[in-house]
Amino acid sequence: MTPKTFKIKSFGCQMNVYDGERIAELLAEQGMTASADDADLVVLNTCHIREKAAEKAYSDVGRLRRDDGSKPLIALAGCVAQAEGKEAKARSAMIDMVVGPQAYHRLPEMIAEAARGGRPVDTDLPALSKFDSLPKRRRANPSSFLTVQEGCDKFCTYCVVPYTRGAEISRPWADVVAEAQALVDGGALEIVLLGQNVNAWAHDGRGLQELIREIARIDGLERIRYTTSHPADMSDALIAAHGEVEKLMPYLHLPVQSGSDRVLKAMNRSHTTDTYLRTIEKVRAARPDIAISGDFIVGFPGETEEEFEATLQIVDAVRYASAYSFKYSARPGTPAAQMEGQIPIEVMDERLQRLQARITDNQLAFNRSTVGLGTRVLIERPGRRAGQMIGRSPWLQSVHVHTDAKPGDILDVTLVEAGPNSMAGAVRQREAA
Ligand code: SAH
Ligand code: SF4
Ligand code: F3S
User: Counting C-beta atoms within 10 Å of the first and last residue's C-beta, which end of the chain has fewer, N or C?
Assistant: First the structure.
């Protein structure tokens, strides 16, 4: 049966969210309609980064069986699809299609084949061809994602991304600028440039800072962000842009992973704590109020108590405005999975708790330092309480505001109260959207 309705569920990073939006546009162009429940076709856009995320993909597939025993057409997409390929079909007979993150532009043909009873698999990693065969962008969110760079050549020893997303490639300048313009025409006020190593973006001798400066020229675009950056690719020219491009928001996600140089070396991160801290210093010299965010892994193989404490110390040294922390998860095919000294789960649990408490202290300190500031908040969605909306400050804080403003409005707000994960703001004056 040819499906008429579809539902897409995206997990993992923002690049998967972007891919999910593009898949939705592609299926809509085929005449299918999005449906909240009981769709004819379900696309599970999965994440392979940690074991839990990957296992979730299969339990989600199982849950798609309907009460009457029937099931929708099921496409396994994203990084689990890439990592497992046709193995996925063997693991679950319910899966009709397996499509990797660089091949989803082929979904229309694959759906036709699956509707005829086939079980197609496409996990090719062709350089960028998907972008050429996707429909033009039309409708955009107030804050919209735009993938400019894909893949990773860094091969951190714990990480699956180089295998699931392929080699580092940059989309061409003109394509990115055209898509940014289309997003602004469709209503975007903020564009978040995405890549697994977004600051490695380069095309025709130009780097990310030049792309940011070009996109900043688009009338009607208010804000630019980019994520995720690798410390090794944080060039002086990109840092300088933080002090010069008004639309570039004062926020930088720059994962360090550990505060121990021995662990960093074993992780094959190409930075040391010292080079990382010097980069942060330069960024702060260019943009003193910048909010720094990061990622951490606790319990990397061989991590001692002392090495873990060095991670606590770097959290305080950087004064992170926000940070994400994870228990190390051994991933198939990665070098770290074979290393000696795998850390027991109880030790990881205990370290994660201590790290998260330290991060919370720093988040709260950052948020408190902004109380009393007048700033602008881009409204994104309704809050939990009546009359409350949630938006983002330039520093990417979630700000709760009592207002009748709509998503896409930008409000002048005074930050009045700080929590570890959000702020309360009071409207100063309403601006036209
Ligand atoms: N390209 C980005 C992030 C990629 S994945 C970067 O290099 O920073 C997002 C985060 O997941 C990583 O920063 C890391 O902290 C975490 N992560 C990746 N692999 C992991 C693993 N095997 N176990 C636990 N956390 C992991
Ligand atoms: Fe993974 Fe390292 Fe590449 Fe980030 S830089 S995606 S952590 S291999
Ligand atoms: Fe997950 Fe793939 Fe992103 S593994 S974090 S969805 S690149």
Answer: N
72 and 204 belong to one structural domain: no
pTM: 0.96
Residues 6+ apart with CB under 8 A from 59: none
Q: Quick one: pLDDT at residue 129?
A: 77
Closest CA to 131 of 102, 110, 173, 165: 102
Q: Which whole-number Å values give the CA distances from 242 to 151, 226, 288, 309, in the listed order?
A: 25, 11, 10, 31
Torsion sign (Cα): 254, 260, 261, 265: negative
Ranges of residues in the chain whose predicted pLDDT is under 70: 128, 429-433
- For residue 16, give the ligand 3 atom closest to its CA: 6
Q: What is the pLDDT of residues 168-208, one digit of tens each?
A: 999 999 999 999 999 999 999 999 999 999 999 999 999 99
> Does residue 335's CB lie within 6 angstroms of at least one atom of ligand 2?
no
pLDDT at 373: 98
Do residues 345 and 382 share a domain?
A: no
Instruction: Work out whether strand 374-382 and strand 410-418 pair parallel, antiparallel, or are unpaired.
Output: antiparallel
Record the tokens describing residue 205, joined without a space.
């001798």
Hey, which of 49, 79, 197, 198 would you mutate to test ligand 2's pocket, going by the most ligand atoms within 8 Å of its Cβ? 197
Q: So what's the pLDDT on residue 36? A: 84
Centre of ligand 3 to C-alpha 214, Å, is: 28
How many independent structural domains does the chain possess? 3
| Residues 199/235, Cβ–Cβ less than 8 Å | yes
What is the structure's pLDDT at 128? 66
Q: What residue's CA is closest to ligand 2, atom 4?
A: 196
374-382 and 149-150 strand pairing: unpaired
Co-location of 115 and 151 in the same domain: no
Q: How far apart are CA 169 and CA 148, in angstroms?
A: 9
Which one, of 147, 145, 191, lies nearest residue 169 by Cα? 147
Same domain, 155 and 289: yes
Q: Are residues 338 and 358 in the same domain?
A: yes
Looking at the structure, tell me whether residues 193 and 103 fall in a common domain. Answer: no
